[in-house]
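Handout, section 4.2: multi-component inputs.
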Amino acid sequence: QKEVEQDPGPLSVPEGAIVSLNCTYSNSAFQYFMWYRQYSRKGPELLMYTYSSGNKEDGRFTAQVDKSSKYISLFIRDSQPSDSATYLCAMSGGMTTDSWGKLQFGAGTQVVVTP
Amino acid sequence: DGGITQSPKYLFRKEGQNVTLSCEQNLNHDAMYWYRQDPGQGLRLIYYSQIVNDFQKGDIAEGYSVSREKKESFPLTVTSAQKNPTAFYLCASSTPRRAGGPAEQFFGPGTRLTVL
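Output:
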């Protein structure tokens, strides 16, 4: 069983809809939860990260972490065609377990926003 | 312009040949990483290096080798022992973690390797 599970999609939504992405994980030592966006044939770029449980909002993006359920989510409001990309979740342990922040990635979900 | 460069962008290899993928960074980062990305499998760690002249195996190191002679450079060699080398290879770098935040990894544009 993989440490981080993510549905690869593709997920197709009309422009303006809310995109809902999620990952589940099995390692309770994970403390930092990140979302990367990857456009086709490019390297991933960090969108946002959350520490431990809770919500974080950045513009149209909201990240949620539920450590009790080992479940994280990313929501994209008012989706645009430019949001079409693959979204990867990534996780790392706390400072005491992993001072260099080695990441475990999900498989990535391909999102297509149609005009 | 600070960043990570990878070359070449596309690489074709005949079976039985070794090939070396280049990765250079001018971000002054201590740590560097190599990942392999296959459709539906996300990023899998091949090797990583936290300091010059030192590196560790990741989850899928068999058939690969690396060197870290300079802080800026972390080349990856795909050897003939790698049974299925066709993939998208990504290099990344990061600084050590500070309290209160993760170690953000910055990625290069990738090299697509195809074995003919």
